[in-house]
Amino acid sequence: MEPRTTELDPRYSDPKAGALPWHQAQERLAAAEMFWLTTVRPDGRPHVTPLIAVWSAGALHFCTGPDERKARNLAENPEVVLTTGSGRFDEGTDLVVEGAAERVTDETRLRALAAAYEEKYGAEWRFEVRDGTFVGDGGPAVVFAVAPRTAFGFAKGDPFGQTRWRF
């Protein structure tokens, strides 16, 4: 999926900065090991948790136990934000993906995602696919896909820059 628009925000960017191409952002999303997921509790308060995810078919994919707080939040409100980055002020690129989390239940797609998890994170993250879920040592896990509606890239260092992609 390609963005409808890519724009550098001059308010938050050095005059030397250029917009980050989407393909570079996708490469960073695919390589990132750790993400922070923000969901909304039923009472409107935010809930943030770290998790692992894989980039596949134009979306970030993550899994969670069906009774975990994030799964319960998503049952009420699918709107999420996923963030990743270097954690440093002066280097790297932080990425923010906004969108709606959609449950993935197609077993062919789930098998491909299970293989992607194992390839990226190792045999410790091996899942079987059963009844529209991942099944691992921790029991069943529901899988969600978040295709970006809007994404931001924050280049840090020299030059600083903020790119926004709209889909």
From TrEMBL:
Pfam families tied to this protein: PNPOx_N (PF01243)
UniProt cross-references to Gene3D superfamilies, sorted A to Z: Electron Transport, Fmn-binding Protein, Chain A
Keywords, comma-separated and alphabetical: Oxidoreductase
Ranges where the Pyridoxamine 5'-phosphate oxidase N-terminal domain occurs: 23-133
PANTHER family xref list: HEME OXYGENASE HI_0854-RELATED, PYRIDOXAMINE 5'-PHOSPHATE OXIDASE-RELATED FMN-BINDING
Name listed for the protein in its UniProt record: Pyridoxamine 5'-phosphate oxidase family protein
Protein's organism: Streptomyces solicathayae
